[in-house]
Amino acid sequence: MAHRWKNNLTWDDVTPEAAFLNRRQIIAGMAAGGIAAGLGQSASAAEGLEPNTWEEITTYNNFYEFGTGKGDPAKYAGSLTTDPWSVEIDGLVDKPGSYAMSDIMSAMTTEERIYRFRCVEAWSMVIPWNGFELADLLNMAGVQSGAKYVAFETAVRPDEMPGVARNVLDWPYVEGLRLDEAMHPLTIMATGIYGKPIPNQNGAPMRLVVPWKYGFKSIKSIVRITLTEDEPPTSWNKANGKEYGFYSNVNPTVDHPRWSQASERRVGGGLFSPRIPTLMFNGYEEEVASLYEGMDLSKFY
Ligand SMILES: Nc1nc2c(c(=O)[nH]1)N[C@H]1C(S)=C(S)[C@@H](COP(=O)(O)O)O[C@H]1N2
Ligand SMILES: [Mo]
């Protein structure tokens, strides 16, 4: 299933000519008046030039089960046993049960997806994931007609996760998507980065990636996937429902109560790099806007 999405950056985008262009000039040009003239296009081209380094992607993380510091996951997640691993797929599916990760990997075809990744805290990266479409996994289990949502759950292992001793969140970390969001071709289960197995701090052996939503929707180290009729609870919404909604679509026009979401800091951009404008649906508007037709996005934040 090798879809080529217009906004799915690939290594083909990294041309010598493009690399020659001065990124700051491109961004300054956009700010000076390029916004109306197809910013999405030029922005994705300009940003696509610089996937973040392996070092940046694997040492600046949010994975509170291992601590709340950005460096904690890289320090402590090595202790997580990720092999063997199994994922319970249950609820409204034809074939509920415990699926061994090794069986999932042999059934799925992985491909590379270079996606923008935008944390609600207003930092961002460009990450070359390897993975497969969540739809393929859900279809393997057989989604029943009554299913409207998909709930996800992360492992809780106090012995291996020093962060769960503190009640910064209710454990396990849980997340959810509407079924159409889960089945969207941009939604993937990531099992690798830069062609290598995904490191524990990034959510080994399998984590969700929903590139048009804030990063906290992309739940890590998944042990359970449940098809439900009702909207499932989600960790950050439970912790602070005024600040974090169920949808959490990247939206530069809907600010977080405590900070602006209009721009973001690209990790690794350097001390003097300008903040870059945040794009509607993180730059995937053309692909996903129709999912939210008629919805008030400031209400369903
Ligand atoms: N289980 C679990 N999943 C999680 C988190 C977490 O704390 N626990 N943090 C989320 C947040 S806030 C972000 S921004 C991303 C960070 O992914 P990364 O470390 O691979 O960049 O993971 C998300 N998934
Ligand atoms: Mo985040």
Automatic annotation (TrEMBL):
Post-translational modification: Predicted to be exported by the Tat system. The position of the signal peptide cleavage has not been experimentally proven.
EC number annotated for this UniProt entry: 1.8.5.-
InterPro entries the record matches: MsrP, OxRdtase_Mopterin-bd_dom, OxRdtase_Mopterin-bd_sf, TAT_signal
Reactions accelerated catalytically: L-methionyl-[protein] + a quinone + H2O = L-methionyl-(S)-S-oxide-[protein] + a quinol; L-methionyl-[protein] + a quinone + H2O = L-methionyl-(R)-S-oxide-[protein] + a quinol
GO molecular function, one term: oxidoreductase activity, acting on a sulfur group of donors, quinone or similar compound as acceptor
Superkingdom of the source species: Bacteria
Annotated positions binding Mo-molybdopterin: 61, 64-65, 119, 154, 202, 207, 218-220
Domain Oxidoreductase molybdopterin-binding: 81-236
PROSITE patterns, sorted: TAT
NCBIfam families, per the entry: PRK05363.1 (NF003767)
PANTHER family: PROTEIN-METHIONINE-SULFOXIDE REDUCTASE (PTHR43032), PROTEIN-METHIONINE-SULFOXIDE REDUCTASE CATALYTIC SUBUNIT MSRP (PTHR43032:SF3)
HAMAP family per UniProt: MsrP
Similarity-based family: Belongs to the MsrP family.
Name assigned to this protein: Protein-methionine-sulfoxide reductase catalytic subunit MsrP
